[in-house]
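Suppose you are handed a protein chain with no further information: no name, no annotation, nothing but its sequence. What can you learn? This example shows the usual starting point.
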Amino acid sequence: MNPQLINLVFVIFLSFLNCDSNQKKATQNSTVNTKSVKANNFNDYWFSGVAELNSYDLKQARYGEIRDGEVVLVFVTEPFSASKQVKLDNPKKTPEDDVTVMKLNNVRKFNTGIYDYSILTSTFTPINTQDYPNTLKATNSIQEWCGITFTQLNLEDNNYHYKQFSYFESQGDLERKIKVTLLEDEFFTRIRINNGELPIGEIELIPSIIQSRFTYQEVKPVKALIGKTATKNLIKYKIEIPSQKRTITIDVENQFPFKIMAWTEDNGDGLITTAKLKKSLKSPYWNQKSVADEKMRKELLLVK
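A reasonable first move is to predict its three-dimensional structure. Written in structure tokens, the prediction is:
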């Protein structure tokens, strides 16, 4: 056979092997990014095509008094774009960009006198914590009769790209970089992903966006101490933030799926915010938007 022809056949053969290897690598990466390695009960529970809805009775400290309200925690897994940091409409088209996240929409509502507060914090934490150890994105919006604030953190290398927009002059609009560390706003998603576990001991964390907005404090990493105790039924976490004279407690179900049973926020002013679980259920809520579906709100024990 012609030597040049032999070389050509050999090159084509190597190219085929390389393409096949790359395809297998891409497929493996996609699998790791979207499913990770978890116990079967985790996959069965969190990849069942429905969300977990949780309602809480809220006692909110605000303006020197305790206000009645309620919280809804919506946990659901979703395909997420690592580059754009938005939900992917068609993850099969860009498997290399697909990262499965646990999304938490934390909806908090309460009244202050005649007017009401509506607060939504969204957190997007990858299921595959080995390849994606940090939450990719967190957003917060606060609406009340005086005005609106909106805050967003996007992971960029070793920093969070922080953006803040506010109606209020004292807060204003700003944009800056914040060193990546644990977010207080990702505590709940971390607990659900990591079998009820949070890091223990002295750590750095970025405090809750709600707390920072309520107290007009700069959003930046601070020192915190996390302690843990456990009983047969509950895991109890105590998070102390000395620089803010603030203490948070979280009660977690001590078995899978490690639901958030209650939490408290003590800001050192003698008033303690508390939230206690009322009802939890699994639901494809995005399909339950007709008038007839309003009965589901009663099932979830929602007041408003």
